Amino acid sequence: QVQLVESGGGLVQPGGSLRLSCKKSGFTLDFSATAWFRQAPGKERELVAHIKHDNITKYADSIMGRFTVSRDNTKNTVYLQMTSLKPEDTDVYYCNAGGLDGYWGQGTQVTVSS
Questions:
Q1: Between the CA of residue 21 and those of 10, 60, 79, 114, what are the distances in Å?
Q2: CB–CB of 79/21 below 8 Å?
Q3: I want to staple 2 with a disulfide (CB 3.0 to 4.6 A). Which of 26, 59, 69, 93 is the partner?
Q4: Do residues 10 and 91 touch, judged by C-beta distance below 8 A?
Q5: What is the mean pLDDT of residues 44-63?
Q6: Apex CA 75: angle with CA 70 and CA 76, to 5°?
Q7: What does DSSP say about strands 18-25 and 10-12: parallel, antiparallel, or unpaired?
C-alpha cells in the first residue's frame, strides 16, 4: 500500500523556520519525482518545490532562496526546509509523488503569524 505521510507543520513567527518531512512507503521502485504543494482555502493548489530521483530540484519563484527540498533515500523521506517564513506562506502543505494523478499525503498545516 502506497502511503505518503507529512509531518513538521505548526505555528511559527515571521522570519522563523520549519522543516517538513514526507515519509514514503509502499513504493517498490522509486523513480518518481517527489513534490511539495501548498493550498489555502478557496485557492488553487500551488507547486512549491520538487526533487527528482537524480536530485535535480525545481522551486516556485515565490519561495526561491528561502526553501530547500532534499531527500534521504535511506529513510525514504523527502524534506522541505523552510526559512525566512512570511505570513503569506501560511497554507496546508502536501507531499506528492507520481504527478497530479499520483499519490498525495494528508497535508500538514503551516501557520506563520506573530
A1: 12, 18, 5, 24
A2: yes
A3: 26
A4: no
A5: 93
A6: 70
A7: unpaired
